[in-house]
């Protein structure tokens, strides 16, 4: 396709403002699918994505409109996947900014729109849901101009649901979004935008061609990975797969090259011709590394092999997730896994539970610490080790210094919530670096220890600001910290799954919070259960679960037999999901719930 006839764009929207509905409409209007095929929403195709309303994997659809090729790119919407988003945006020249006519501009819109502006995108405001009686398009236009600071006078008024404004949107994409630039004669340079595993095709790679042409039968080289592959398919999604002879400059499409694992096709890598390579790769390649680690253990020890298989399968499709075997005194055999963030962790854990039918225990998430050990007798030099698991923390006397990873966070927040956000950052040991105003909102820059952020910072930020604050971060290296291992004891027995590394200054608050939550989460037993948080041998917080007053099961004995059997079955079921510590049964949910900070 000629460069002047190509338009590449994404859709930016707050949750529920109608992104998926609009995408489906655009596909339908341009003839991609029949009414019946449209019944299932096309762009969000994973169950979990649908239920949580978040897009995890970027997808692209090629549309045809009045002699032009329009590539519509879907982008994930969570900070854990920020790098994937940045690559998808780098593959586009413009964006549709979808705002609900009744709700107005909301938080998520902002984070994404600022990123889009940073990529110099042409932004077309679309005011959706004008069919609603409560729609106030003029008010929303003003909000877009005031809050975001872009011209909204020529916003398209639309209803994705009723099919109003769809042609106008497609026309606006053609008229207002610039065509991509590129040199057809230069050596091939294409960006790897996304990759995923398909059971029939193997690894499918989504590419945006910058210069040159990518074609079937070509020998290509991945510049960052250093590997070469023979391309066996080139094509596009419309949204059904269509094979094409090649993709030229400015085009977005997919290739396959008999690659077995997505780990070999990393997002952001540059593809070039093996025989006539480009002099330099595209800027911006970053190897995403897991930042949050936790242990995953089967509740039933017999499920270990099943867990291994399931984890290996998931890994085939997700290069940013890592795992290795781990043994724990209390939990038996399991895996130490690494994730991009807490949401990523929850997604993987949920898929294992749901798709693979596994009951799991998740241990306290942790970042990677660096420990400089004191010189042991017979050692020539002091050693530095990386600590992924609080349970492996050496004796404090053996530690010279502990370093923890820090991040630089940029937060956008409306004025009215600024005070509470500043307090949140302060409570999390943040160091304020900058505070400016952009388009009527505060832009805050903070340095924060990653370990204070991975648990629930994002959720807290969102709830404090009623969803209006946005948050983005990058790692800035390691710094020394006064860190200690906090152990949790239930009925005098340490629960290693709940031990965590904390800052000495916040240890007591964290310990108290943890004990209080566990008190609510662990059911009463026939005896009194002490719950304690301790550093070294010193108890810093404690709670007690009172004993059950009477034996509730006693009533059943000698009674109705079916009832008794039911009760026994229930108990059996319950057993499966419980772990025993010092003869105390802890429900599976307690492990995760206890880790959410109040
Ligand atoms: P996420 O996928 O959760 O981010 O949401 P989304 O932005 O993709 O929104 P989605 O398309 O799923 O729409 C959210 C809800 O709004 C659905 O119930 C749609 O039916 C409804 N909706 C979308 N467009 C319109 C519209 O133009 N008018 C009305 N009345 N409802 C709409």
TrEMBL record:
Domain Tr-type G: from-to ranges: 4-181
Membrane topology: Peripheral membrane protein
EC number: 3.6.5.n1
Spans through the membrane: none
Entry keyword Amino-acid biosynthesis: no
GO CC terms in record: plasma membrane
Pfam families, A to Z: EFG_C, EFG_III, GTP_EFTU, GTP_EFTU_D2, LepA_C
GO MF: GTP binding; GTPase activity; guanosine tetraphosphate binding; ribosome binding; translation elongation factor activity
PROSITE patterns attached to this UniProt entry: G_TR_1, G_TR_2
Catalytic activity: GTP + H2O = GDP + phosphate + H(+)
SMART domains on file: EFG_C (SM00838)
CDD domains membership: EF4_II (cd03699), EF4_III (cd16260), LepA (cd01890), lepA_C (cd03709)
Subcellular location(s) per record: Cell membrane
The keyword Calcium is annotated on this UniProt entry: no
GO terms under biological process: positive regulation of translation
Keywords, alphabetical: Cell membrane, GTP-binding, Hydrolase, Membrane, Nucleotide-binding, Protein biosynthesis
UniProt-annotated binding residues for GTP: 16-21, 128-131
InterPro entries assigned to the protein according to its UniProt record, in alphabetical order: EF-4, EFG_II, EFG_III/V, EFG_V-like, EFTu-like_2, G_TR_CS, LepA_C_sf, LepA_CTD
Enzyme class: hydrolase
Family (UniProt): Belongs to the GTP-binding elongation factor family. LepA subfamily. Belongs to the TRAFAC class translation factor GTPase superfamily. Classic translation factor GTPase family. LepA subfamily.
Annotated function: Required for accurate and efficient protein synthesis under certain stress conditions. May act as a fidelity factor of the translation reaction, by catalyzing a one-codon backward translocation of tRNAs on improperly translocated ribosomes. Back-translocation proceeds from a post-translocation (POST) complex to a pre-translocation (PRE) complex, thus giving elongation factor G a second chance to translocate the tRNAs correctly. Binds to ribosomes in a GTP-dependent manner.
HAMAP family: LepA
Protein name, entry field: Elongation factor 4
